[in-house]
Design a protein that fits this description.
6-stranded mixed β-sheet; 244 residues; globular; single chain; alpha/beta
């Protein structure tokens, strides 16, 4: 892939960071029980030059990096993910060590925007792979976020073969956003359940079921920073934008 001439300008011009989801990690909907997960992690480390990979005592590929005044938290949603058939109160997606790390890093961040990047959608109640389907860990995390009054939080995800923007209102607090951006090369969503087609908290006009990619643009003076999220088609035409 990286020897292809068409991609050389992109590789030379800007840094590349990555997370994985099921098809990067193993089989479809793969979880912590995948027997070759250590080999997958070794290959990931060889291919992607992320700033770090998990913790010294806990394997995985999560890490934190900063781009100017934006903090980016890359999470690992597969290495510790429990199977979906486990009882709700027991199953976890991030695992104890990664969740504790993420809380600590978010609490320490002073960035106006904090991007949490996860392979699977966060809030989508119509999709079994979303973070919301792991309620024990999910509720613990969002209770922490609201208790600590952590603002400027934006989630970036993939997995679904379409793009959209989901807005989760928060009583007396900063709303949560989940920008799902996918796919640029794989087959777009052909069939979608009525529940997912009509998600009430999806920002109107943001559902895109064709090849596309996302862009994030940051601007504005200190104290008045602005994030513009965009979805563009495969040729770069702007399909929608949303300003926070």
């Amino acid at each position: 892939q990286r020897s292809q001439p068409i991609i050389q300008p992109l590789l030379a011009k800007m840094p590349q960071y990555a997370i994985w989801d099921d098809h990067d990690f193993g089989p479809n909907n793969s979880t912590a029980g995948f027997p070759l997960k250590e080999a997958s992690l070794d290959l990931f480390k060889a291919y992607w030059a992320n700033p770090r990979y998990g913790l010294a005592t806990e394997p995985g590929n999560w890490s934190r990096l900063s781009w100017n005044d934006v903090d980016i938290f890359l999470t690992d949603g597969r290495y510790y993910r429990d199977a979906y058939d486990l009882p709700e109160e027991k199953r976890k997606l991030l695992g104890d060590a990664q969740l504790a790390w993420l809380k600590q890093e978010l609490k320490a961040s002073r960035a106006p925007f904090k991007l949490v990047v996860m392979g699977s959608p966060i809030f989508n109640p119509a999709y079994s792979e979303s973070f919301a389907q792991y309620p024990s860990e999910y509720n613990d995390f969002f209770e922490f976020i609201q208790r600590e009054k952590i603002e400027g939080l934006v989630f970036i995800s993939g997995d679904r073969h379409h793009s959209d923007l989901y807005k989760e209102p928060v009583k007396n607090g900063y709303p949560f956003y989940n920008f799902t951006s996918s796919p640029l090369t794989s087959l777009p969503t052909q069939i979608m359940s009525a529940a997912e087609q009509n998600l009430p908290k999806r920002v109107p006009g943001t559902l895109v079921q064709q090849h596309n990619y996302g862009m994030l643009k940051f601007s504005g003076p200190p104290g008045k920073r602005v994030l513009i999220m965009e979805t563009r088609d495969a040729k770069g035409k702007l399909l929608w934008e949303y300003r926070i």
